[in-house]
From TrEMBL, chain A:
Protein name: Thiolase domain-containing protein
The organism's taxonomic lineage, starting at the top: Bacteria, Bacillati, Actinomycetota, Actinomycetes, Cryptosporangiales
PANTHER family reported in the protein's UniProt record: ACETYL-COA C-ACETYLTRANSFERASE (PTHR42870), NON-SPECIFIC LIPID-TRANSFER PROTEIN-LIKE 2 (PTHR42870:SF1)
Highest taxon of the lineage: Bacteria
Species, as recorded: Cryptosporangium minutisporangium
InterPro entries from the UniProt entry: Thiolase, Thiolase-like
From TrEMBL, chain B:
Span of domain ChsH2 rubredoxin-like zinc ribbon: 189-217
Source lineage: Bacteria, Bacillati, Actinomycetota, Actinomycetes, Cryptosporangiales
Organism: Cryptosporangium minutisporangium
Pfam families membership: OB_ChsH2_C, zf-ChsH2
Protein name per the record: OB-fold nucleic acid binding domain-containing protein
Domain ChsH2 C-terminal OB-fold: 69-131, 222-287
């Protein structure tokens, strides 16, 4: 019998355009660890497994994640692991450790100082290194190609996209950690210049520095520690071809497959979707089959704050938060990685177990 | 280093550049060699669709693909976006369109740039390859695409088998020192060696750190340290390398300053390399004050003080 695993704590740093901290994230992580562990009621010395997600390309230095371990205070020696990618996938690794009983608690963290380099250009290095990356296609231009495919096919309009931006910023007014928030007028948004036709500034997630941490616990340990754990009822991830041309870029078959493997979307009340571009939220809602009754991104989502390599983990933390506070019984979190939603993870969480 | 104010962290530009050299394997080697001959190759997948650039394995069935076919050089724009301000390394330096282009004879589109005015761009437009005047073997042998009706004469091909590609990568960052490191760097600019003590375990770190690696809390109390200490461990550098400042043999050592709990690396000079030993007492030799900046290089090297060696127990915990 494998263990049930729950999210029992979550904290994130403010999403800001630039921090004066280092690219190893220590300054952002120390207070985030403290708050996440306090919410979970777990002493740091009791954490059974630590796992992080970040990227050396973002930091511009090799093994940048090693310096981040200073923030843990890794003595006596700890069990620790790292993935080069969004920390949602580090959470997947920690979930496996807890499922198999190798640990009964874990702290998962992600961090990124996106402002250190030129983010859209750094992300070109995610693409195929033989036939695509030598052209330096930046992330915003690539997303614009995908947006136009959907526009031409009549799957969404520029107005639909602007409405996603407006709703996200309005929702973020109740999120004190958001980078962008406020009431914006869709007509006004549609009157602004393109940054990469057909994308305007509001269609693109901002460049954000930030960090986040999620605390997991298994079975009775979770029940002991908190009153209302957010149980992970299903989690799965799928990846698509590295070749952009062979993929159907107007949908996300890997998201659909992940959701199915994670137990489906029936009864989901809230969904936190990792959509760095407005059209990608519309695309993901379609791929997941989320009806109009499902509340999308009450946090404001990554369009209002996009800490690279933490943003996917934040979706899981935010979704779990809706279970913690009793506002929802079944929630869905989605995380993405790679160019144009190449790799997708879906995590379904529930209050009762 | 740029100093913003007396208290803000120090920062400096950091440019990293490296050439990725990759072997191509059979499929991409054929693709790159064909590009050099001014031909574009696709490969037929398990379902009969022709993919270009040719994947080595079928994207659905993962079967090895070997049925190569010529495609292009003309094709149709499937989708496009406008790049008003091209970034370093992109195919064109003036505003251009990115496009997924379905080449004639191919079923799946490929990414490249289109050199056309903004108002000429539309989905479905016909384009064709413009070959690079300086082939390098690889996707950049296609300089870009251009509207079919405006296609100019192409340079002469330069056929040669291509088995490797080199992709230069250059990235620019603004690297920031931590607040603690910044205090250290400002101190050393004035000839002072500033460490910090962990409030939990009491250990003194130099340079100070954002968090004590043992306790995970920020170090707070500043500790001024002397410029003399003990060699904990060392190596004799015998290997010459590009950019080397000294002529081998010379000694790089870990120096534990008196009162510090962590050693840092520096040079031990002014004595023969084979006389340097663990426990040797050393002192800093500073460069002339007018050369000082926010760097540990203000200390040119350490030299023996002539004091008796420190007993092993003094530094045994710092190896």
């Amino acid at each position: 019998m494998v263990n049930d695993v729950a999210v029992i704590g979550f904290a994130q740093s403010p999403s800001v355009p630039v921090t004066d901290g280092t690219t190893n994230g220590v300054e952002m992580l120390v207070p985030v660890f403290e708050r996440a562990l306090a919410q979970a009621g777990l002493p740091k010395s009791d954490v059974g497994f630590w796992c992080s997600g970040s990227s050396d390309y973002l930091a511009g230095r090799a093994f940048s994640f090693v310096a981040a371990v200073d923030a843990i205070g890794a003595f006596p020696p700890i069990h620790e692991s790292h993935i080069e990618g969004d920390a949602a996938w580090a959470l997947y690794e920690a979930w496996l450790k807890l499922r198999t009983g190798e640990a009964d608690t874990a702290l998962v963290y992600g961090f990124g100082k996106s402002s250190a380099g030129e983010l859209r250009r750094v992300l070109a290095l995610q693409t195929d290194p033989y036939t695509v990356a030598p052209l330096w296609p930046d992330a915003v231009s690539l997303a614009a190609l995908q947006a136009r495919l959907g526009l031409d096919a009549g799957l969404w309009s520029e107005r639909d996209m602007a409405e996603v931006a407006a709703r996200s910023r309005a929702d973020a007014t109740t999120n004190p950690l958001a980078q962008l928030s406020g009431k914006v007028d869709v007509e006004e948004l549609l009157g602004t210049e393109y940054v990469a036709d057909p994308l305007r500034v509001h269609d693109c997630a901002p460049v954000t520095d930030g960090a986040a941490a999620v605390v997991l616990a298994a079975g009775d340990r979770a029940r002991e520690l908190v009153g209302r754990p957010a149980w992970i009822s299903g989690i799965a991830h799928r990846v698509e071809s590295g070749s952009l041309g062979v993929r159907d870029l107007t949908t996300s078959v890997s998201t659909t497959a992940s959701a199915e493997a994670a137990g489906g979307v029936d009864g989901v009340e809230v969904a936190e979707l990792h959509a760095p571009f407005t059209h990608q939220e519309l695309l993901l809602r379609q791929a997941l089959g989320l009806g109009s009754s499902v509340r999308i991104n009450p946090s404001g989502g990554v369009l209002t704050g996009n800490p690279m390599f933490a943003a996917g983990l934040v979706r899981i933390g935010e979704a779990a938060g809706r279970v913690f506070d009793g506002s929802a019984g079944r929630v869905l979190a989605h995380a993405t990685s790679g160019p144009l939603l190449q790799h997708n993870l879906v995590c379904v969480l529930e209050g009762a177990r | 280093m740029t100093q913003v104010s007396d208290t803000e962290p120090l920062g400096a530009p950091l440019r990293i550049a490296f050439d990725y050299t990759r072997s191509l394997g059979p499929s991409l080697s054929r693709f790159a060699t064909a590009l050099r001959e001014h031909r574009v190759l696709g490969v037929r997948g398990s379902d009969g669709r022709v993919h270009t650039p040719p994947p080595e394995y079928d994207p659905v069935t993962a079967a090895l693909l070997t049925d190569f076919v010529d495609v292009g050089p003309g094709g149709e724009v499937v989708t496009w976006s406008w790049q008003p301000k091209p970034l370093d390394g992109q195919p064109l330096t003036r505003p251009f369109a990115w496009a997924l282009i379905r080449l004639d004879g191919a079923d799946t589109p490929m990414l490249h740039a289109v050199d056309a005015p903004r108002e000429a761009m539309r989905t479905g437009m016909r384009v064709r390859v413009r070959w690079s005047p300086e082939p390098t073997g690889g996707i950049r042998d296609i300089a870009c695409f251009e509207p079919e009706e405006s296609a100019g004469a192409s340079p002469t091909p330069d056929p040669a088998e291509v088995t490797m590609i080199t992709t230069p990568i250059e990235l620019a960052y603004w690297h920031t020192a931590s607040p603690e490191e910044s205090r250290f760097l400002r101190g050393i600019t004035e000839g002072r060696l500033l460490g910090q003590r962990c409030p939990v375990c009491g250990k003194v770190y130099i340079p100070p750190r954002g968090a004590c690696p043992v306790d995970g809390v920020p170090t707070t109390d500043e500790v001024a340290l002397p410029d003399r200490g003990t060699v904990t461990t060392f190596c004799v550098v015998n290997v010459p390398y590009l950019g080397q400042r000294l002529t081998p043999p010379y000694v790089a050592a870990y120096v534990l300053l008196d009162g510090a709990d962590i050693a840092f690396q520096h040079l031990i000079l002014e004595c023969p390399a084979d006389e340097v030993r663990m426990g040797m007492r050393v002192e800093a030799v500073w460069r002339p004050r007018e050369e000082w900046g926010p760097t540990l290089e203000n200390i040119d090297h350490f030299r023996p003080t002539g004091e008796p060696d420190a007993p092993y127990d003094v530094y045994a915990q710092h190896l």
